Amino acid sequence: MHVARAFSCHLSLADMSHQMSFKELMKVLGLGAVALVLGVEWLNWLMRRLRDSRGPLKEVLFFPSPQVCVEHLFIRHKHFPCACPLPHGIETSFSRLLVHLLSARMSLDLCVFSFSHMELSRAILLLHKRGVVVRVVTDRDYMTITGSQIGALRKAGICVRHEMSSAVHMHHKFALVDGRKLITGSLNWTLTAVQSNKENIMVTEEPELMGPYQQEFQKLWEANDPANHKPQCTNGQLNIKTCKDR
Amino acid sequence: MHVARAFSCHLSLADMSHQMSFKELMKVLGLGAVALVLGVEWLNWLMRRLRDSRGPLKEVLFFPSPQVCVEHLFIRHKHFPCACPLPHGIETSFSRLLVHLLSARMSLDLCVFSFSHMELSRAILLLHKRGVVVRVVTDRDYMTITGSQIGALRKAGICVRHEMSSAVHMHHKFALVDGRKLITGSLNWTLTAVQSNKENIMVTEEPELMGPYQQEFQKLWEANDPANHKPQCTNGQLNIKTCKDR
Fold first, then answer.
1. Cross-chain Cβ contact A171/B198 below 8 Å
2. Omega of the bond leading into B64 within 30 degrees of 0 (cis)
3. What residues pair up with A176 in beta bridges, in sequence order?
4. Which residues form the PLD phosphodiesterase domain (chains A, B) (predicted)?
5. Quick check: pTM over 0.80?
6. How many Å apart are CA B183 and CA B202, to the nearest integer?
7. Which tens digits make up the pLDDT trace of A18-58?
8. What ipTM does the predicted assembly reach?
9. What pLDDT is stored for residue B53 in this prediction?
10. Which CATH architecture has domain B58-227?
11. Which of B219, B216, B230, B108 is nearest to B159 (CA)?
């Protein structure tokens, strides 16, 4: 029955295309395309309305996070699963963190005490490559420890500023995605923190929470502008020369 | 004019009390007291409605916090200012943190990596003395470092559990006040963190954020129950003997 119906449908479509002129066919196809675009837009609007009715995004992630493959988050249209031996297709706290970071389209402001996690570094470098404006404020002492990714970010041309005072630690661990989404918690950007420690992260688009963190970032960014301080190390000079400061 | 009016008013009140019987006077005073209580209740209701219309509490605090006198937060009805040389009557991030902690009436669940701040320890001991049920989960290594206040809490009979694994750090820094208010951020409970470092704390009563932290606390509390682990140190045994575990 189904085969017969499908065949007759195919026949009638074929007949139609024979009967219709090329101009008419283009008209139908054009109208179809417009209807498709409108439909997608309407679905988008509906999804936004549904999301708005639940209030701004609020998500809490706890660590340690099990080690799974996150390759599909970095390489778009990659065939799944990839060849690596890690478990595939599993969502973890770490993969959620990556998803939120990689959702940046315009800007990423990052304030982090310790940054040695290779995959988080890969995510930041990828955002920079995609044209996202990345600004990083970090700790003076911890940016030079073994395994720190701060040098790699600077080499790629990402603007990094560090706490200027040697008596103070820049102990924040927060990120601001597109000036809209706040990611904050106890998690330093290290492998131990992600895979071993008991840690937490909160992701929110609540403007009353996001706003103060954005102001704090801007305050730290301006306070640690190397142009306002005497040059103390090569890193400071490199920072001025290579990155496009805002 | 004003003096004359006040005088005549005083006279008429005196006349009234002369003319009114004792019973009538008591009636007026009783009604006045009822009106006052109702008025205060109504004001309270109005304040609650106004607060609710702004949504659940959301407050962000940044550190370092300047050193000011916080004595009035510990001793109720104390004459102000006290005799100490610190600045008085100034609200800071640290005083706001103390206000939120000392607002606990029923319970305080605390998950903190490093705890050596004397005034925060004093606040926790005061809550315990007031009958608030305090539970603490902390890090195994950091609870024994010089200046740690964990021993003082245990001596006072407060229930403290520590991360049982030696390979893992309990790196959270959050508190739950009366199962309703969440205090979380990058701030460890040390003097350096409060007075020197760049740190953040968020205080919120948003149920979607509070809920997951409450679950995480309960999970850690149960996972680190010394009754389920072989005794490894005196602290663990002391914990079982002295505090009333929930």
1. yes
2. yes
3. A109, A182
4. 166-193
5. no
6. 6
7. 567 888 888 888 898 888 988 888 888 877 666 555 689 99
8. 0.76
9. 57
10. 2-Layer Sandwich (3.30)
11. B108
